[in-house]
Amino acid sequence: MLSWAMHIPDGYLSPQTFIPLWGIMLPVWAKASRVLKTTLRTRHVPLFAMSAAFSFVIMMFNVPTPGGTTGHATGAALVSILLGPWAAVLAVSAALIIQALLFGDGGITTIGANCFNMGVVIPFVGFLIYRLLTRGMMPMSRRRAAAGAVAAYVGANISALVTAIELGIQPWISRNTMGKPLYCPFPLNVTVPAMVGSHLFLFGLVEALLTSGVILYLQKSDPSLLTLMDPAVKTRQPVPNPTG
């Protein structure tokens, strides 16, 4: 019976895996902090705090799936769409670290891995896809919701694939003298279908619906929040029709 989720617990990743991922995340967190000091305005700090809280809350709802795995939405793509990928790195990482330290949701040794998988992969993939699909698009265009859905769906599935690879390579890289895996015992042909399948057909769709729903809501309530990362859009005005 499998027993992992997107939050990888302690004991599933070898030091050969989780130490390099800690090594990746430390400079990423430092870079994100520097970027936010220059880009995050004082009036946007409450939005950043609410984004971290939002990500924290929805990640607490783990849903069991066939095979013994569990999954959940993250909100990471949505945060990156609103505030940029570097803000999403810190917001999602903060949520993940609190969950690991206070609630045991995810391991301590695997904080670097979990933050990379959900706090880097999803925000950057989602942000790049969203910006590509919405280039030149006005804030009130309904296509923005569809673009957000695609960005969130792809980001969630790539994150699931990265997580599955990290778990699935463990039997190859860390065995005892008897040849038995010391950490995650399941190979790639088990981890990839289990993780990716559940996100292709369920959790990726949940992430997409969540993201598109919030975008549609913001278009009605406060469209300016959709242009924080693209201020030039605000200054674009429709060309007057000379015929009236």
Describe this entry's structure for a reader:
- This protein is mostly helical.
- The protein is built from nine helices and two strands, in the order ααββααααααα.
- Strands 1-2 form a two-stranded antiparallel ribbon.
- The longest helix is centred in the C-terminal third of the chain and has 34 residues, at 188-221.
- Mean pLDDT is 86; it is low at 235-244.
Keywords:
single chain; 244 residues; mainly alpha; two-stranded antiparallel ribbon
Write the layout of secondary structure elements.
Blueprint: H1 15-39, H2 45-59, E1 63-64, E2 70-71, H3 76-83, H4 85-103, H5 111-133, H6 143-168, H7 170-173, H8 188-221, H9 232-235
Antiparallel strand pairs: 1-2
Helix pairs in contact: 1-4, 1-5, 2-4, 3-4, 3-5, 3-6, 4-5, 5-6, 6-8
Describe, in short, the structure shown.
The protein is built from nine helices and two strands. The protein has 244 residues and is mostly helical.
Radius of gyration: 19 Å
Q: Calculate the mean pLDDT score and round it.
A: 86
Low-confidence residue ranges: 235-244
Terminal Cα span: 68 Å
Give the strand content.
Answer: under 5%
Bin the helical content. 55-70%
Number of strands: 2
Principal-axis shape: globular
Counting DSSP H or I runs of 4 or more residues, the number of helices is 9
Going across the biggest sheet, name each strand in turn: 1-2
Series of H and E elements? HHEEHHHHHHH
Overall SS class: mainly alpha
- The biggest beta sheet, please? 2 strands, antiparallel
